[in-house]
Write a structure and sequence with these properties.
Elements lengths: L6 H11 L3 E5 L8 H11 L3 E5 L13 H4 L3 E5 L5 E4 L2
Parallel strand pairs: 1-2, 1-3
Antiparallel strand pairs: 3-4
Amino acid sequence: MNYDLELDHVVEQIKSKGAKKVCIQLPDGLKQKADMIKEELELKTDARIIIWLGSCFGACDIPDGLEKLGVDLLVQWGHNAELRMGQD
């Protein structure tokens, strides 16, 4: 199954917010695409991409400790592959 992960939209958001460190949060079914997502976003932006490998149960499941990591932007893909974006 192919998903439209809307990476161009994510690139636009990273650039428009001036984010330098971005955390990507994926549900288990999309984690095999983590390397591809990281490579594409780092290639097209100046941001450092961090992949959160913990659980992801939707937009309410925000990883603890993002502020300690200095994350500027959190990008989440939920279980239905819908793009959700939030900023600390």
